[in-house]
Automatic annotation (TrEMBL):
Pfam families: RmlD_sub_bind. Keywords: NADP, Oxidoreductase. One of its GO terms (biological process) is dTDP-rhamnose biosynthetic process. InterPro entries: dTDP_dehydrorham_reduct, NAD(P)-bd_dom_sf, RmlD-like-bd. Its EC number is 1.1.1.133. It comes from Streptomyces beijiangensis. This is dTDP-4-dehydrorhamnose reductase. Pathway: Carbohydrate biosynthesis; dTDP-L-rhamnose biosynthesis. Residues 6-285 form the RmlD-like substrate binding domain.
Length: 292
């Protein structure tokens, strides 16, 4: 089978939505999960691109176990750093556009205003370091056809995520204590998938400059504020959600206190940034409840 798009990590939450978006538009696409393609295997990557002959590769494959990466950084680096490098090498050889999905964790997380696309990076976790390595490989090897799209706080119908967890907990807990000192942008995978497809098309048309874009929802909130919005969507009393601090939930990997990303670069590509997070949650919610 040949297709103009190849999606790695197609079995994941975001990969499923990218495939669904392309299918809805009648685009030819090949989706490969991690069993079908090991992106750390250079020969397998080259062979896969030669077989399917895509015009665009969207790399949704990633090590996403943030805490585990602290003790297994080499393994995380193989997938998050070496994998994108192998893809970029093959895309450079075969003249293919590459869209690499990255993360807010590449920043220090101590900002006070939205991080611009060209803001200095400074990851404080193994996960962030490994994802930054992947970004750097793509931008280095594909200066004209490499795209990095940073995202954060993802949720969607196709996998486990914070929204689904809160929906479950609402049904079994009288009250919930949720962190109120981490700020970010809850982002619906369907919204991100849409922008990835538009960006890939812009790359092929020559209307979207290569480089870094931020694929997160507009606005900002905390996990506490997000959870209250989820309770409201359920028709539950938001007062059952109580604020707490990160100190109450100590984890191996430090969480960014401030993960708000700026979206100015989309204008250069003629693409509207993603809608506000609360509006997206309202639109996404029926499917999230149905798949819970």
């Amino acid at each position: 089978m040949s297709g103009s798009w190849l999606i790695t990590g197609a079995g994941g939450m975001l990969g499923q939505d990218v495939m669904a978006r392309l299918a809805g538009d009648g685009e030819r696409a090949v989706g490969l999960d991690r069993k079908a393609l090991d992106i750390t295997d250079a020969a397998a990557v080259r062979a896969s691109l030669a077989e399917h002959r895509p015009a665009v590769v969207v790399n949704c494959a990633a090590w996403t176990a943030v805490d585990d990466a602290e003790s297994r950084e080499d393994e995380a680096l193989a997938i998050n750093g070496d994998g994108p490098r192998r893809l970029a090498e093959a895309c450079a050889e075969q003249g293919v556009v590459l869209l690499q999905v990255s993360t807010d964790y590449v920043f220090a997380g101590d900002g006070e205003k939205p991080y611009a696309e060209d803001a200095p990076t400074g990851p404080r976790s193994a996960y962030g370091r490994t994802k930054l390595a992947g970004e750097q490989a793509v931008l280095e090897l594909l200066p004209e056809t490499g795209y990095v799209v940073r995202t954060a706080w993802l949720y969607g119908a196709g996998g486990p995520n914070f929204v689904k967890t809160m929906i479950k907990l609402e049904g079994i807990k009288d009250t919930l204590d949720v962190v109120d000192d981490q700020r970010g942008q809850p982002t619906w995978t369907a919204d991100l998938a849409d922008r990835l497809v538009l960006l890939g098309r812009g790359a092929l048309a020559g209307t979207a400059p290569a480089g870094v874009y931020h694929g997160t929802s507009g606005g900002e909130t905390t996990w506490f504020g997000f959870t209250r919005a989820i309770f409201e969507a359920l028709g539950a009393d938001p007062e059952r959600v109580r604020p707490t601090t990160s100190a109450a939930f100590v984890r191996p990997a430090p969480r960014p206190a401030y993960s708000v990303l700026g979206h100015d670069r989309w204008s250069a590509a003629g693409i509207e940034p993603i809608q506000g997070w609360s509006e997206a949650l309202r639109k996404a919610f029926p499917n999230l409840v149905a798949t819970d």
